[in-house]
Inverse folding.
């Protein structure tokens, strides 16, 4: 199944989140059945990230959005497990600082975009400014309504500079969110994740639905697509996202750069060093005195 096309929000299309099955799990019945496929995608991502780092022409930006407990942290853990962390950064976008509020809303995000050869993951993103600020009326409509165009222009700037952008909305339903809240309460090792704001924000479910739908509809473009990922089943979420990331990275048609050194000359130097080490080993062996017989 081609998850890239199945879950991609086509430009200009309408999104109705209530009509999307958050429990969809594709061709596999459970995690055990899907595991070989997930591992295969992870190997592909690992190799493609290595190639991206070596080629040093492209970069990858992954944006994660979703309701509280949708699985953003879990997705980050899964994606990073397939990559070399030396070439990755993760940035979480929470309440803006005083310095950030003194700049335009994209300033803090632009600072965190990936440099060539690297991967950046946004835990929440520049879309917070058309979600939280809209739902809680922190800025007037005449302000946030203009931000969709600003976001599209910002993302076009990045893609024109060879940044591959993949944006994932992790789709869970209200029942699943409540079940995950309960797990946090029942499990002492998850108490640190509990936030009173999770429960107050849940009361704005319908308002957030409208805000997410508008963001998905207005800002899913050919150059920076949105994907709505059914996420009630964590293993399927990981499988679908791995599939999409691998497929998108493959489309870049990357290649290893040509060597900057004369390989024939390097081989000669290598063999010279190798022969010297072998001679040193022989001389060292000759100096060793034979063992005396008892």
């Amino acid at each position: 199944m081609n998850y890239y096309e199945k879950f991609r929000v086509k430009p200009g299309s309408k999104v109705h989140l209530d009509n999307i099955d958050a429990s969809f799990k594709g061709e596999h019945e459970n995690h055990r059945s899907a595991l070989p496929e997930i591992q295969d995608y992870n190997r592909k991502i690992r190799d493609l990230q290595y190639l991206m780092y070596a080629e040093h022409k492209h970069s990858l930006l992954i944006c994660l959005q979703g309701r509280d407990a949708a699985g953003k942290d879990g997705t980050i853990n899964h994606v990073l497990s397939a990559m070399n962390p030396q070439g990755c950064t993760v940035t979480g976008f929470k309440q803006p600082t005083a310095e950030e509020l003194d700049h335009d809303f994209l300033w803090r995000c632009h600072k965190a975009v990936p440099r060539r050869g690297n991967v950046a993951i946004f835990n929440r993103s520049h879309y917070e400014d058309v979600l939280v600020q809209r739902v809680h009326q922190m800025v007037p409509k005449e302000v946030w309504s203009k931000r969709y165009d600003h976001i599209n222009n910002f993302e076009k700037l990045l893609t024109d500079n060879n940044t591959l952008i993949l944006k994932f909305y992790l789709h869970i339903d209200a029942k699943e969110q409540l079940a995950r809240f309960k797990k946090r309460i029942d499990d002492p090792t998850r108490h640190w994740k509990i936030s009173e704001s999770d429960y107050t924000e849940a009361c704005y479910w319908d308002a957030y639905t409208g805000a997410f739908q508008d963001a998905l509809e207005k800002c899913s473009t050919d150059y920076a697509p949105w994907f709505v990922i059914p996420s009630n089943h964590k293993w399927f979420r990981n499988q679908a996202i791995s599939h999409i990331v691998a497929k998108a990275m493959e489309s870049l048609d990357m290649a290893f750069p040509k060597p900057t050194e004369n390989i024939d000359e390097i081989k000669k130097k290598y063999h010279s060093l190798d022969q010297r080490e072998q001679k040193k080993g022989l001389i060292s062996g000759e100096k060793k005195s034979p063992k005396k017989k008892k």
